[in-house]
UniProtKB/TrEMBL annotation:
The chain crosses the membrane at residues 36-59, 79-101, 122-148, 160-184, 196-221, 246-264. Keywords: Antibiotic resistance, Cell membrane, Membrane, Transmembrane, Transmembrane helix, Transport. Its main location: membrane. It is a multi-pass membrane protein. Belongs to the ABC-2 integral membrane protein family. PANTHER family: NODULATION PROTEIN J (PTHR43229). One of its GO terms (biological process) is response to antibiotic. Pfam families: ABC2_membrane (PF01061). GO terms for molecular function: ABC-type transporter activity. Residues 38-271 form the ABC transmembrane type-2 domain. This is Transport permease protein. The lineage of its organism: Bacteria, Bacillati, Actinomycetota, Actinomycetes, Kitasatosporales. It comes from the Bacteria. It is found in: Cell membrane; Membrane.
Length: 274
């Protein structure tokens, strides 16, 4: 008579299960995005409206003020588009906080904790779904930018590098937004928590040069995370000087992503212990 013994899953099997569960959660969140497109439309409309406003209303005046030539709207269009694209990525991460908080308040995450699935897959599914949404937003904003006169001179490699940087930033901010959603008490507070990040590009080089700012504000603009990212995008797409901005951008994205991931894991674990 033989006795059956339980076999512990190998690391490769555990990784396979975690990947499968993450893909399941990804499909779930993508279906929810399809069912509730209003959030995506709102997120797309904000950068598009800002782009049209700054190009057609302020473009002629601001272009001359930052040395692009008075009334040279085309030159200012090229200048401002990288900043608007950056703003679109940042605003796109708000949905993670909202979707995670919705799952928390409705009890779905508590139900997931009782199921035989990888714990990490729940948040990973939210982050990956947001990455797909950000790609869609980037395509729309870039299309509108071309329609109003944006003319970059980037090569295919430079376009790929710019897209990679934007997706890295989106990935990092998505984890930070997920952590905010986990600690938020209501969906409304979850949607408001990441909003300062959306407006931070205004206090950088997205719409005007930092040289045109007062001393205190210029110091903040030069050392906040989105200015080096914006300057790197502008250099890749338009051929301006990048210098150390690329390495600084990667360092900021890595730091934000690490902070967001650790915070989200801690908040998720504390929620399970309550």
């Amino acid at each position: 008579m033989t006795t059956a013994t339980a076999t512990a899953p190998t690391p490769s099997t555990a990784r396979s299960h975690a990947f499968r569960d993450a893909m399941t959660m990804l499909r779930r969140n993508l279906k929810r995005i399809q069912r509730y497109p209003a959030m995506t439309v709102q997120i797309v409309m904000l950068p598009v409206l800002m782009l049209l406003l700054f190009v057609y209303v302020f473009g002629g005046a601001i272009g001359g003020g930052i040395g692009l030539g008075a009334g040279d709207r085309d030159a200012y269009t090229n200048y401002v588009v990288p900043g608007v694209v950056l703003m679109a990525v940042v605003s796109g991460t708000i949905t993670v906080a909202v979707s995670v908080c919705t799952d928390m308040t409705e009890g779905i995450i508590n139900r997931f904790r009782t199921m035989a699935i990888s714990r990490s897959s729940v948040l990973t599914g939210h982050v990956l779904a947001n990455m797909v949404q950000v790609l869609f937003i980037l395509a729309l904003v870039t299309g509108v930018s071309y329609a109003i006169g944006f003319r970059p001179d980037a090569t295919a490699v430079e376009w790929a590098a710019a897209l990679g940087l934007l997706l890295f930033l989106a990935f990092s901010l998505s984890w930070l937004s997920a952590a905010m959603g986990l600690v938020a008490k209501t969906v409304e507070s979850a949607s408001n928590a990441p909003m300062p990040l959306v407006y931070l590009p205004f206090l950088g080089s997205a719409f005007v040069t930092t040289d045109s700012m007062p001393t205190g504000l210029r110091w903040f603009a030069e050392y906040q995370p989105f200015t080096p990212v914006n300057e790197t995008l502008r250099g890749l797409l338009l051929g301006t000087e990048i210098g150390n901005d690329a390495w600084i951008s990667l360092a900021w994205c890595t730091g934000i992503g690490l902070l967001g991931h650790l915070w989200a894991r801690s908040a998720f674990r504390k929620g399970a212990e309550r």
